[in-house]
Amino acid sequence: MATDTMEPAVTHETVWRTVRRRARITVLVPIAILAYLTYTWFAFDVSALLAKSQPDRAVILATDSVAYKVQVEKNFRRGEFKVAIEGERTATYDNAELPDWVDLDGDTAFIDLGDGYSVEIDGKTALFAIPGYGVIKGTATDKGVDTVLPNGPAPDWVKVDPRKLNVRPTLDRRLQVTKTKIEVHNYFGGWENFWFPFRSPLYGMSFSQLYALALSSDRMDPETSNLWFIVDEFLSNPDWQHGDVFVALFETIMMAVLGTLTAALFGLPLAFLAARNFTSSTFLRFGTRRLFDFLRGIDMLIWSLIFIRAFGLGPLTGALAIAFTDTGSLGKLFSEALENIDNKQVEGVRATGASQIQRYRFGVIPQILPVFVSQVLYYLESNTRSATVIGALGAGGIGLLLVETMKTSRDWENTSYIIILTIVVVILMDQTSSWLRRKLIEGK
């Protein structure tokens, strides 16, 4: 005899209760999120941070990272003009080889900034002609700067001060007048002197000219080949320090590789001690697991600071910080993988009369190898980025060079260069690890 299953009747009150419960959740969740965001707004004092922000300065730094300036300066103390890239003494033009937009004549100068913008310097007076606005006159005096503006309100890009006149109508044109000097800045896109220094005999050569020079038998330096001379001029560029940057990148990669491999080599044996199906001693398992918690519970940056105090600055401290942190993380992951293996494979190997080491080798390792390889390669990718941050604290590598270029506001193109190289290295590490993963796990 079949028994009928009785389903509870759906009443109007049941439906209404469900609707009200869901309506409360729908209303309360957005209110809770809004309350949390409101709390964080006041707790972090976001209003004060926004008030202190300098978006105009951020735009200038962003422009400086992809452009460079040629600076025309008249120094009243020395009584001379100087035309230089980024104002550098080592990148100063000879007066006989000035840019075509600069015309010097004794104590006067005419600078054509393009699109109708021009600056005329006569003695201690600078006249800045600006299309659609007029001419701004700034005269240096013993007490500061006397400024004369066209009629009407002064625009935001004119900063008038008794001690300094600063005019920047566009991002790529600028005039500064103080009581000691007049400066005109003209910006151009690109990175200045990237391939070779300004005074190098290779400066301004095209790639075809460099290729022909490398194959030529007429040596630039009698003691070395032209190819090596080109490479050496590039690597020893004092402005961009390509050689030092590449060495720092190599240190960063080695820091990540050494730290990750050390963590994997120590984490795997310790994982057997932490796995329930391999270690019967509760005390030993508990102690090993707490060791993993201790190692990974302290952040990598904290380990780096500890080792810097213990061993001093250098890549070794970064590698040790990575090794300590990842030993805890990889050990925990490996132990969980060991606890999830199929014991039938281990028993099958045992039935052949294999020793315990052989059972681990042929019954356990093949099962956890995909997890082992995947996790180690993933941590290697991640540690390449982490090594940059650790290096910034003093462990060396590319991170230290990155911090040095960010200390001043005039080296942001070098900062961009280092950031781009770091991203390229991370991409290459990702592609390499993907290739190794396919070769080792999939056999492709």
Compact summary:
By secondary structure, the chain is of the alpha+beta class.
What does this structure look like?
Keywords: Membrane, Transmembrane, Transmembrane helix, Transport. This is Phosphonate ABC transporter, permease protein PhnE. The strands form 2 sheets. The protein has a 6-stranded antiparallel beta sheet with strand order 2-1-12-11-10-9. Strands 3-4-5-6-7-8 form a 6-stranded antiparallel beta sheet, with no helix packed on it. It folds into 2 domains: about 60-190, no CATH class; about 240-345 and about 350-440, Orthogonal Bundle (MetI-like fold). About 55% of the residues lie in helices and about 15% in strands. The longest helix is centred in the C-terminal third of the chain and has 40 residues, at about 355-395. The chain has 13 helices and 12 strands. With about 450 residues, it is an alpha+beta fold. It has helices at about 10-45, 45-50, 55-65, 205-215, 225-235, 240-275, 280-295, 300-310, 315-340, 345-350, 355-395, 400-405, 410-440; strands at about 65-75, 80-85, 100-105, 110-115, 115-120, 125-130, 135-140, 145-150, 160, 165-170, 175, 180-190.
Task: Set down the secondary structure blueprint.
Layout: H1 12-43, H2 46-52, H3 55-66, E1 67-75, E2 80-85, E3 102-105, E4 108-114, E5 117-122, E6 125-130, E7 134-140, E8 145-148, E9 158-161, E10 164-170, E11 173-177, E12 181-189, H4 207-215, H5 226-235, H6 242-274, H7 282-297, H8 300-311, H9 315-339, H10 343-351, H11 356-395, H12 398-406, H13 412-442
Antiparallel strand pairs: 1-2, 1-12, 3-4, 4-5, 5-6, 6-7, 7-8, 9-10, 10-11, 11-12
Helix pairs in contact: 3-13, 4-5, 6-7, 6-9, 6-11, 6-12, 7-9, 8-9, 8-11, 9-11, 10-11, 11-12, 11-13, 12-13
